[in-house]
Specification:
This protein is mostly helical. It has one domain. 78% of the residues lie in helices and 0% in strands. It is built from 22 helices and no strands. It starts with a helix and ends with a helix. The relative contact order is 0.15. The mean pLDDT is 86.
């Protein structure tokens, strides 16, 4: 097993894509074990085809792409600007509030960074904000996307850890709002020191007009949450409902998308979904080989030997996850770590929903930590801001997110209270 991990790290250092590093290292180990390599194809196929909840992923991606292409992002941005553009920090505060709203539609941090990011940074540049600050705000606010439902990482975590996706969705709402508040406080501090501009306070009529233009998109998270809470549909079916609603808005209400544009959105969705599913498939083979050699069991024994205190155990795990996020893409970490860690934390008395939300939040912080922060690369690509500029500017924004992470670790009800209240306490 040490040899397989050495292969994996070596492939990563040579610049091979994460999905291929996982699959190739697993194949090398299977070959050394004398296992027929046809098992790789069988395991990859099984990991995708046997999971009904995983169907939610392409549908949430499709809904987010439609919202980005169908005139929704402009309405969301305009509404957020009316609400908080007059706060200290102006457009930077708008950036965060727009991410809160858009997170209820896309379920993806990268969809937020790539979709809203270009528009937000362009507006901040025009208003005189420096590029580093604008990009850092955009990257850090995009971490809210997978916390407030819907959430693609929560769907994948629920599949891997056998945890209720509905409870995960509800558990992420308070952490998402806490993250937004923490970022807005930091933005206000920087805006005061750097004298960033802000908008004039809007008239009530302007607020009402912007609200009415954004009203229909704002219904998206309400449809998803209400449908799950009242039992109208499962989280997977909620993804289909969100996609249908996005089609109705984009094609028939706003008429921003025709059949030709819809075809392009479908192709983008297929490409993105294929990448996600390929990582899931290859990582499942890697995790399967680890499990066959009892690596999860040995990891659990080692972790519990460090401490039997659930809080200390949670802190140790999150320290490892935070460090791993510097070097490994979050989805790969999740697929590798969740099957090993989920049974361990449950046995230690940690609520699986609490652990799941904390785990995902930690992975979102990894999106903004160099050298492998995918969020930094995405924002750099859509805005033209250099990666080095973003990497330097993002450092202060790690502080509020780490504070929120510690709050979630030390106070589990911040995650569990809402799902327990709306869906009933776990027995």
């Amino acid at each position: 097993m040490l040899l397989m991990l050495v292969f994996w790290v070596a492939f990563l250092l040579f610049g091979m894509a994460v999905a291929f590093t996982l699959g190739t290292a697993a194949m090398a180990q299977l070959w050394l074990d004398g296992t027929p390599l046809v098992a790789v194809a069988q395991r990859m196929t099984k990991s995708i085809s046997d999971s009904f909840p995983l169907l939610a992923v392409p549908f949430f991606i499709f809904a987010g792409n439609l919202m980005n292409s169908g005139g929704v992002t402009e309405r969301v941005f305009a509404f957020a600007r009316i609400l908080v553009g007059h706060f200290r920090g102006g457009l930077a505060q708008v950036n965060v509030v727009a991410s809160i709203i858009f997170s209820g539609m896309s379920g993806s941090a990268l969809a937020d960074a790539g979709g809203l990011g270009n528009m937000e940074i362009r507006a901040m540049r025009d208003a005189g904000y420096d590029d580093g600050f604008s990009g850092a705000v955009t990257v850090s606010s995009s971490t809210i996307g997978p916390l407030i439902p819907p959430s693609i990482p929560m769907v994948i975590y629920g599949v891997l850890g056998d945890v209720s996706i509905g409870r995960m969705f509800l558990g992420g709402i308070v952490p998402g709002l806490l993250t937004a508040v923490a970022l807005m406080i930091l933005i206000g501090f920087f805006a005061g020191r750097r004298k960033y501009p802000k908008d004039e306070r809007p008239a009530p009529q302007a607020i009402f007009g912007a609200f009415m233009r954004a009203l229909l998109p704002l219904f998206t998270p309400a449809i998803i949450i209400a449908g799950i809470v009242f039992g109208f549909f499962s989280p997977t079916e909620a993804a289909v409902a969100a996609s249908a609603y996005a089609i109705a808005l984009s094609m028939f209400v706003y008429r921003e998308i025709g059949l030709r544009e819809l075809y392009g959105v479908v192709l983008d969705t297929i490409r993105t979904s294929a990448m996600v599913c390929f990582i899931v498939a290859t990582a499942s083979v890697f995790a399967w080989v680890l499990a066959a050699h009892e690596a999860p069991k040995n990891l659990a024994i080692w972790l519990t030997s460090l401490s039997e205190n659930p809080l200390v155990l949670l802190l140790i795990i999150n320290a490892f996850l935070f460090i791993a996020g510097f070097f490994i893409e979050g989805l790969a970490i999740m697929i590798l770590a969740v099957p090993a860690l989920a049974p361990t934390v449950v046995a230690a008395g940690i609520d699986p929903v609490h652990f799941g939300v904390v785990f995902i939040f930690n992975m979102m912080i990894g999106l903004m930590t160099p050298p492998m922060g995918i969020g930094l690369f995405v924002v750099s690509g859509v805005s033209g801001i250099s990666f080095n500029t973003l990497a330097r500017a993002i450092v202060p924004f790690l502080a509020p997110l780490l504070v929120v992470l510690l709050l979630l670790i030390f106070f589990p009800p911040l995650v569990t209270a809402l799902p327990d209240y709306l869906l009933g306490a776990r027995t």
